[in-house]
Structure formats: structure tokens, C-alpha cells
Predict the structure.
Amino acid sequence: MPLPLATLIALLWASSPLWPPSALAALLAARTHVLLAGLPRPKHEHQEVIPDHHTLRTLAGVARPELAAYPDLHAALERLVGECEEVSWYSPPILPARALLAQWREAEV
């Protein structure tokens, strides 16, 4: 079962065009903090999940205990969530990240 932080990091590597353009700087900052912390991450951007701000906020909340060890990453994620929430952001229902979160929660039980 993936840890919440690992799931969150996988979401951060969703393909850049799937993110709101105004959030790209915050996205790159969050990715940079993942790299600086030496955390495992996907090797390439992917389109396995489509990010949405609700899932991003939920995963950041669930991963809060893990993020306590990475305060710079936590701050960068909060900025990214804020940027994404400010934009009217529509994620096409191909495979929303919410489905990934639901699968993770089901696996927990």
C-alpha cells in the first residue's frame, strides 16, 4: 500500500499541461523540494492521474505527519494548493486523481 506522501509525490509528477498555467511555478518549486529531499519520485511526467486541487489538498492533509520531516516541501505544497484553488480548474474525467485517492483509502481498510 502506498504511503500518502508517495501518492502525493506521484500526483506532483502528473504532466505539466494538466496543471493550471498559473500554478506551474509553484509546481516546479514543490518538485524541486522533492528532489532536494532525496525522496523517491516517478522518473518522468505521466498522465496516469489528472490532478485536481481537492485531491491535492486532501493528500497534503493525510500526508501531514510525513511532511513534518520536510518543512520546505510542506510550505511549497501549501503554495501549490493555494495557486490551484485560485483558478477555476476543470479536470476531465479520464482518470481523476480522486479515483487514486479512493483506491488508496479502500486498500487501507
The longest helix spans residues 71-85. The chain has a mean pLDDT of 84.
